Structure prediction request, 194 residues.
Amino acid sequence: MEFAAKSTLRKLENQSQADRPKAKVGHRRDATRPLATNPALIDSPEERVRELHNIDEKLIRDVASMNPAAAAYVRRHPCLSPESMTKWRCGYLPNDGGGDKRGWSLRGSILYPVLSEHGHVLAWVGRDTQYEQKARDYQQLSPAKRSAKEPPAKHRFPKGFHRGLELFGHSASHVTTRAKGAYLICQVGKSLAN
Prediction:
């Protein structure tokens, strides 16, 4: 079954957007629209977006060099060692952008890449290092004030990114699932363990 799924994915990758199959009639979404995809950043027609594919070169992985909120977040999560952050291409993007202007909306966040099955960056997800404090402040507001404000966002996703299509860590899943004998299914931002 795994082979059949990979074979189908390869066929879809080789088809142009116009040739892709449409959704079945009776399905929730508009059957005339093609299926959504998340293209790799490096394949974007916009130069600004293409330049983001390797922004991980600017990420800080040393806790001593991070601002206090980011350092506290990394210290609370022992899995975020400098070695694992390098391996998974995540880290802290400083407020100055690491000396260039890329990723301005993600500055001051811990960045995680969402990779395609082939290891290409599809998106960078920013984790707000001050989310817990913002959430506490939001909960302390009166119900009337709370209804007028949006709750703080824990993660920042790029506009147009289809979260339900990608599994975080999918590019490495064939290694980890066989090694551990267990499966972990993760939608970016949510998880369900089997």
Observations:
- Confidence is low (pLDDT under 50) at residues 23-27, 174-179, 184-194.
- Residues 2-14 form the longest helix (13 residues).
- The radius of gyration is 19 Å.
